[in-house]
Task: inverse folding
């Protein structure tokens, strides 16, 4: 699908409006006491907050008004069909565990899928006030009136790499072992930052993010941002990652290749 | 030592001025590219940044002007003697690994030791602009013009607790096992937040922080803040923790007792 300049501007403006709206909703609930938390799954701990649902509803209302012809796939309310060939992929609060802990590493994720992965990605961190955008040949960081281009940094050797993931267990036992084999080669491994890790990668502050068990709505926003900033995102076999699963994101193609080789041993 | 009201106000004002100064210095270096990082220890990874040293120098300059009679113990420049019976305990950048990764979970820590633990503690997070203060019967959170009292939340059972620590390995193998025994009982365990975890505890967002291998300058600021907010901080045997080592901080004395019992099995 070809998306001309005027259309690109319109689509970015829609993404920004959704992020503005979701920011207002989520901040109203962030760090309140006695936040109503339900358990989505009976086993394990997968909190869905009221904020999560309200934020997705608010984003869907923007789309209903401005882009009724587009499809939607949202974490909370699933699929809505469209006729334009474009699908908005929404995660109103990625990192709900961080959210309920008061930590500012959760984010609002927006991706725009045109058939073969996102053409636009946005990560918004409402509490720090930071927004990370990538798409249509642009990538930038904004915070209030501050603005800067987003560029990943060079990193040719794993020995120089800072690696991040969210949980030390990563995924299955086998996935954890593969992750640990990469981690053992890296300069530093850090845990717990959810989608904010992809933002730090796009900022050129870290070099690798490796995760497993992700959904499409967890990755489409981050893929748009990281690719826009010059990075590489694939699954652990080197294939497109926009449907989720095992994800490896790197700022430098050489670090990506070196880590991929270890993951596939 | 008795510290009267006027003196309390003066000491808080000095702590605030130090934090203001350290905030300016650290933000000048945060997220810059090619930050000069030295290795403090030949083995392992203990980065000391230029920012760390400059920030401590700036804080020491404030003390030299306003409180020349007080002693100082700083992470970077060690001990300086004094005659007042008060010791300022300074960690210019707690969480240097977070700092070099661009993550806003590091902090400037200030404690004021009067012989038996801190009478004042301050945690400053320059990037989010948050300051957490506890001491002299007060505890508050500030961010720009926003201000709120700091209060830990009730948590009687570990099954309801959110637990945080910085590294999954915690400390020695034995310490890791003890930590994991507590973690297995808790609702949620999160990693990677450095001193910001104590701030979240004081905010009443989480319930427990358990760490090991800490230094006095890592804990004095957090102890002041957490105790000021109504929490409890001890070592893993239930003794005073202001000299560092194994630390358990809890928002509720019942959760503290329950975790302590497991750590000592």
Result:
């Amino acid at each position: 699908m070809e998306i001309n300049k005027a259309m690109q501007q319109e689509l970015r403006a829609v993404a920004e409006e959704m992020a503005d709206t979701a920011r207002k909703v989520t901040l109203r609930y962030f760090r309140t006491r006695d936040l109503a938390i339900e358990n989505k799954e009976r086993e394990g701990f997968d909190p869905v907050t009221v904020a999560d649902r309200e934020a997705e509803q608010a984003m869907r209302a923007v789309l209903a008004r401005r882009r009724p012809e587009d499809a939607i796939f949202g974490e909370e309310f699933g699929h809505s069909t469209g006729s334009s060939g474009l699908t908005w992929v929404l995660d109103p609060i990625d990192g709900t565990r961080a959210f309920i802990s008061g930590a500012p590493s959760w984010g609002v994720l927006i991706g725009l899928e045109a058939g073969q992965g996102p053409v636009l990605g946005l990560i918004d961190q409402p509490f720090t006030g930071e927004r990370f955008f990538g798409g249509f040949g642009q990538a930038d960081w904004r915070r209030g009136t501050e603005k800067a281009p987003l560029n990943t940094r060079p990193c040719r050797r794993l020995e120089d790499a800072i690696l991040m993931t969210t949980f030390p267990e990563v995924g299955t036992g086998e996935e954890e072992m593969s992750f640990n084999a990469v981690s053992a080669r890296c300069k530093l491994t850090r845990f717990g930052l959810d989608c904010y890790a992809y933002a730090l990668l796009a900022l050129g502050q870290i070099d690798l993010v490796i995760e497993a068990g992700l959904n499409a709505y967890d990755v489409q926003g981050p893929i748009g941002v990281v690719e826009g900033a010059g990075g590489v995102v694939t699954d652990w076999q080197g294939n497109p990652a926009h449907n989720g699963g095992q994800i490896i994101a790197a700022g430098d193609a050489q670090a990506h290749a070196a880590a991929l080789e270890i993951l596939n041993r």
In short: Chain B has two domains: 5-149, 158-263. The radius of gyration of chain B is 17 Å.
